[in-house]
């Protein structure tokens, strides 16, 4: 997405690309579609060795980024994963990292971080709730004081890899204030129900907490700046979605352009028809726009810019709306083959549609933009 | 600062120089970027007005004002930052112009000089001009004496520039120009134009053209404003009636005018794409339906709580910001040489499509007031903007031409075959 990668980032991107190609490229997605976990654990551990799990954790925690700006590096990974429609818990682990970095007590840090960083275990963010505002500032999931610790009640849905994760960071309400707490999936009173997901492989679940006892040190933050922390986590989620959808859109566009040169009708390649050329010009422009606004939003987040929330919403509103439409037009330009199960186009389209809706749809992000500009 | 005083002092004498002598604006020497930026910051704060106090877009005096401001920049050593010193520029690399533009963003600047004068015309003269032409025109322009216009489109051919029917016929050492040009921006307020004319009618159409430097205010040149749908008269039509051009008016080689024009268009795309190193001050994407206007409109109509209106305003906001992001992305890539300047056709296309959408959104929000409202409300402008909106999808090459360029020259898709290639122009069907 970003045309201004450093040499280190360029090398990292090339290494990751080779790794993904070696692990089967797009074909890998069809294989993991039938794996209950919804991702290939060997691939994920390999990615973890390349650094995918560590980018938003600090060096003290065993993490570290290439550029000093973890968000810039992790969106490179998301874009590359999007280019092969890879199913991985990258967003789950990265949003968990954004929520917990620097905030985990020693007990939990030593239990969680080594296995999450190595890719042996998955952690995720339990955030969205059915029938609640997407931005999560008024969760119905409640934490209450119980003995020396807390008890957690409520339901989160959808939770990315909610069944596969061993740890959740849960955004909830404590005495009318926004709070975040770390909970183990194995705790008594946690139940997970798989959701039917538009993506062939990525898994989502409803996670219920019924009187779950949580030790006091699991509470990461309450009130005060918790709202800002949640907003920052949401930005991370939105930026990963945008980068992934851009990666997928680039691949779909390239496939379609190539097809236009190869496919002949009435003795001419499709690429020679002006009516189609103009469509390609519009698609190319939309693709460049999607990448440009994603880069701008990533930079605003990395710089701690005051406009970071608005920039993330602009990126999500644009990419979320434009990329599925771009892909649909690519299906149209492919003709009948484009709507077959065998063709890869729908794998990318499924991911883009998933990304369009969760963590705020374009309609919801536009509403936030309207508020942020003073309407 | 010392440098500032030195600069001003030396200027009083320099400004009296005759313009046919190689004029060099004073510079502070070889200061580094940081010092340069600091010097610009200090000078701007002391000498220039805030941008908000500048003349509005259609004010009749904005060209004389721009000439005065350009002169001030020149006297202080901030004009033509990337132009060679021997032609009156500062001879500095692009990062100095960028630094200056960042510092100047909040100040009134002679933006009327940017396009086409500084970003398109002068670079083309640098590319093709004789030494005499460069010395004659570049310093005078940089010091604010000359504004320029492109004389390309004709009443009979818009997108097909190489089909020009305006003719320049040899008369001894001189040329005689006849014909008409149209859609020339602010032509009556400019001093010189670059004019594309046919000089050989038996050659194929691209190989019988030449480009001339033409003084606008002279006998035989009639400049007429074109009143547009919204009542504005930003564009002009010129009629040339036996205008005599001396031999030194020819820019580039005789019958090689398409090469010159292609280069001109290259500079135009760089400018439109935000990658010109010669733009001084930040050009704003000018639109009377910009997203700030939509926000203001929603508040003024009291419809800011209407969820549908909120969606529309945000949609406009998104389109405007994404357009800026696109310009920034491609500008950086063009500057780095990783994408060709023809990629500037993408932001140009979006200028048109965004304006179409934003003007429709404005009309939607203003509603009845825009089409039949009290005169004092100021809503009628929303309707006239909507009525005239396609202008933004036509100027500088229509949206369709941009789509041709993007598909053929950015994506490498096959060109459509013209019915006019390799035929003598006299045998080509034309209007």
List the SSEs and their pairings.
The complex is a heterodimer of chains A (375) and B (431).
Chain A: H1 7-22, H2 27-32, H3 41-50, H4 70-83, H5 90-100, H6 106-117, E1 123-126, E2 142-146, E3 149-160, E4 167-174, E5 177-184, E6 190-194, E7 204-214, E8 219-222, H7 226-262, E9 264-265, E10 268-269, H8 274-302, H9 308-334, H10 345-357, H11 362-372
Parallel strand pairs in A: 1-4, 2-4
Antiparallel strand pairs in A: 2-3, 3-7, 4-5, 5-8, 6-7, 9-10
Chain B: H1 2-14, H2 33-47, H3 62-76, H4 94-104, H5 114-128, H6 131-142, E1 148-151, E2 167-171, E3 174-185, E4 192-198, E5 209-215, E6 221-226, E7 235-245, E8 250-251, H7 257-272, H8 291-300, H9 307-336, H10 345-366, H11 368-371, H12 380-387, H13 399-410
Parallel strand pairs in B: 1-4
Antiparallel strand pairs in B: 2-3, 3-7, 4-5, 5-8, 6-7
Task: Characterise this structure.
The complex is a heterodimer of chains A (375) and B (431). With 375 residues, chain A is α+β, with helices and mostly antiparallel strands. Chain A is 50% helix and 16% strand. Chain A is built from eleven helices and ten strands. Chain A has helices at residues 7-22, 27-32, 41-50, 70-83, 90-100, 106-117, 226-262, 274-302, 308-334, 345-357, 362-372; strands spanning 123-126, 142-146, 149-160, 167-174, 177-184, 190-194, 204-214, 219-222, 264-265, 268-269. In chain A, the strands form two sheets. In chain A, strands 1, 2, 3, 4, 5, 6, 7 and 8 form an eight-stranded mixed beta sheet that branches. A two-stranded antiparallel ribbon of chain A has the order 9-10. In chain A, a hairpin with a 2-residue loop joins strand 2 and strand 3 (149-160). Chain A is globular. Chain B has 431 residues and is of the alpha+beta class. Chain B is 42% helix and 13% strand. Chain B has a four-stranded mixed beta sheet. In chain B, helix 8 (291-300) packs antiparallel against helix 9 (307-336). The longest helix of chain B has 30 residues, at 307-336. Chains A and B meet through helix 7, helix 8, helix 9 and helix 11 of A and helix 8, helix 9, helix 10 and helix 13 of B.
